[in-house]
Amino acid sequence: MSISMSPAETTIEEGKTVGIPFSDDPKFHLRNVEVFYGESPAIKNISLDIARNEVIAFIGPSGCGKSTFLRCLNRMNDSIESCQIKGSLLLDGQDIYDPKRDVVELRARVGMVFQKPNPFPKSIYDNVAYGPRIHGLANRKSDLDDIVENSLRKAGLWNEVKDRLDAMATGMSGGQQQRLCIARAIAVSPEVVLMDEPCSALDPIATARIEELIAELSESYTIVIVTHSMQQAARVSNRTAYFHLGHLVEVNDTSKVFTMPEHELTESYITGRFG
Amino acid sequence: MTKPGSHAEREGSQAELIRRSLKRRYRKERRFRLYGITAIFIALFSLVILFTDIISKGYTGFIKTTVTLEVHLDGELMYLNDAADPEQIAMADFQAPIIKAMQAYFPEASSRADMRELSRMTGSYASNQVRDLLKENPDWLGTTRTIEFPAHDTVSVYVKHAGDPGYSIRLTEQQQRWTDELLSKGVIDTGFNDVFFTSGDSREPSNAGILGALVGSLLTMGITLVIAFPVGVAAAIYLEEFAPSNRLTDFIEVNINNLAAVPSIIFGLLGLAVFIGLFGMPRSVPVVGGLVLALMTLPTIIISSRAAIKSVPPSIREAAEGIGASKMQVVLHHVLPLAMPGMLTGSIIGMAQALGETAPLLLIGMVAFIVEIPDGFFSSATVLPVQIFIWAGSAEQGFVELASAGIMVLLAFLITMNAFAIWLRKRLERRW
């Protein structure tokens, strides 16, 4: 074990990321981001651009800070009192952490899908309709019906549930629940969808469905996905970012990361020497 | 790695060790189960004893003894020639026609002593009953009417409990003979005690009823619920969802937990000092009782509501926040409905406690002897446990069985309340 861990001790330089972390037309413009839980740093000086309509995958060993970083993008860390965020995080040039910024509006633009499917204990229809309802996106029942149908169609769930929209969402299978959560997230037409290990609780068939779905959604949304599965990152993403102990070690085109990684830590990880 | 032989040997002895430890584990498990079953059995047994005792002592409280007489409402006998004249009504003797009617069965009883004994066969308020009837129907004067009187407490005890060592018979030999004879003639009879359910307290057991206390309890509980539930739930939501965690909130939390353990009589003192002393509210009224009990119930509701809010899975909260629900929407749309069953359970436990509470109510004067059935939140009232307390300490033997019957009514009230809460909880759970 001591042999394979040796790269970790050798060559991380803070704030230095190899590959192509920046973009000309960024959706997210993130510079010198640092996150602390109390005193201990979780994210150490990360700079990254997330381009418009790209799918970017965050990979890395457990505890490397990829989920923490993802949750900074729509301020889901706000509810953790000890969590402190420094640096500049811009969405379309506007500061995400501006104290005057309305977090509700931000989250309507940056939707999120979580690790474990977490449908509300309500009917399938009410789950999808919840977002549009609270944001007042539909004035008439028929508009709402359309939004629900469209979202469920995009999530590839419509044919399975169109006859039982009044059924409890919690009665569905895990894969269906996760697709429902995706439908719920896209029902408010966000610009970005954050996915925090969306398939880790699903079987391979359900996972394949979700991955197909991500490919379809990538046409109209910017997608940031955290995953533990390197195959998944390779299948769904345009770019891949490798995190290590709070550092962003390498960002590159996905094909490059998995074939010719520039950094030796990335190489150790994708070849399975640790993680 | 040592030699393969010793490895196999070690394996064999290990299997033996596991087998032996398994046996021990199973024995432990069986013993533990036995403890559990014994505990439940003891609890059930005590419950059965309790219920049999209360029911066997109290069921006679639901039976009344009556004396039905043909009363000739003779004006001359009563010194009354106009029943519509209040002055005459006030002066008239309404006992005389009752004694006369009794004498129809026992013509030999004509001495003063006999007549006094005869008059003590019917309840003390029998003459008032005749007076009230005549007040309502002045034209009855001079006619003969069949009137059902409650039997005197001593007669009732003799009829219901002759031969029971728990009761002493206080009738004279002659009265006992009379009672036996009237029983055989059907003049004295027993029946369902409707008086118990339709009237308030009385000095006379045969006229005393639980309705006043029941209504008083309902009114008091109503006030308690209306105040304690919203305030408790709101406090829990604020503390759990919105309050910053600092020294002040820690201090508040510790104090809430302490308040839950404060003896209830302290709350009575507080009610006496603040509501009655400072605010000048009247004594003995359901409003003050309800307020005091609400204060007493609040900590229980707050603690259980906070536990219920804490148990809402964070994933639901995150899901709602992730779509862009505001804090308020997260709480109102998701946390509250999911926590509601738990909150209701806590509130019902608190309310059940409050329903059975006597001590704080004694201090704010709800222990008074109140005959009228309370007709509002500001009319004098007493509550079920206090009524039971009053009856249990009364001298007349008839009150003993009334106290037991009152306990049964209290238990029934409690069970109804809990059943309603369970139904409500089930309904809320189904909606979700």
TrEMBL record, chain A:
PROSITE patterns: ABC_TRANSPORTER_1 (PS00211), ABC_TRANSPORTER_2 (PS50893)
Gene: pstB
InterPro entries: AAA+_ATPase, ABC_transporter-like_ATP-bd, ABC_transporter-like_CS, P-loop_NTPase, PstB-like
NCBIfam families: 3a0107s01c2
Domain called ABC transporter: residue spans: 28-270
This protein's UniProt keywords: ATP-binding, Nucleotide-binding, Phosphate transport, Transport
Gene3D superfamilies membership: P-loop containing nucleotide triphosphate hydrolases (3.40.50.300)
Single Gene Ontology MF annotation: ATP binding
Protein name: Phosphate ABC transporter ATP-binding protein PstB
